[in-house]
Design goal:
With 212 residues, the protein is mostly beta strands. Helix content is 4%, strand content 35%. The chain is built from one helix and 13 strands. Strands 1-3-12-5-6-7-8 form a seven-stranded mixed beta sheet, with no helix packed on it. It has a six-stranded antiparallel beta sheet with strand order 2-13-4-9-10-11, with no helix packed on it.
Length: 212
């Protein structure tokens, strides 16, 4: 079985999230839906079973043809009430950059550097141990970043060729004015550009709250 981080996985994909999800951990999925009418189905689930599927702590279904990003859960093989408000920032033939941040009471979901929605926890976050992706999509990469406040030695397990892999974009050249930080960007003291450190006098939670 594959383990994330992973690049250019074969779809359908099933992979282990090392250590499972926890509060403060982020997943980043980059991909594209090229054919009209297709979807990208993402399941963060408790086990590796697919049919019938193990409990799903977060299901995201990207449906450009319905102009919807559907969010849901599955418990004991029963699908919960779906949430689909907010439209769909993903277009056919255009790459998408999805970021999922697990917080104490909710997930925060961003697309292409812009906060999209929140989804309240229905199942414990730590039950999210596997990620499955299916549908008519191409996935470029699945990465994770486990924020451990106060630990400057933590380094996520990802290729060194991705020096800015956790932030949505590399910093602009010095001649350009600095733009506001994108949503959920890890802290800048991390050896590869995020996580593991802290802003002096400010908590990570305070920085997130400032965005909304």
């Amino acid at each position: 079985m594959a383990t994330i981080p992973i690049h250019s996985p074969v779809i359908p994909f099933l992979g282990l999230i090392p250590g499972g999800l926890s509060h403060g951990r982020m997943l980043r999925i980059k991909g594209i839906i090229t054919k009209h009418g297709e979807r990208c189905q993402i399941h963060i689930q408790s086990g590796a079973a697919l049919s019938p599927r193990d409990d799903v702590t977060l299901h995201i279904s990207i449906r450009p043809n319905e102009y919807a990003i559907v969010r849901n859960t599955i418990k004991n093989q029963v699908v919960g009430p779906e949430e689909r408000h907010g439209g769909c920032p993903v277009r056919y033939g255009e790459p998408f950059d999805l970021l999922i941040l697990a917080e104490g009471g909710q997930y925060k979901i961003a697309f292409n550097g812009v906060h999209f929605c929140t989804f309240a926890h229905r199942l414990p976050v730590h039950h999210g141990r596997y990620i499955a992706i299916s549908g008519g999509c191409v996935i470029y990469s699945i990465l994770s970043e486990h924020d451990q406040p106060g630990s400057s030695s933590y380094q996520p397990n990802m290729p060194s060729s991705y020096p800015h892999s956790i932030g949505f974009a590399p910093p602009p050249p010095p001649s350009m004015p600095m733009a506001p930080p994108p949503p959920y960007t890890p802290l800048p003291t991390h050896p590869i550009g995020g996580g593991g450190g802290h802003y002096k006098g400010r908590t990570r939670r305070a920085l997130f709250l400032k965005l909304f």
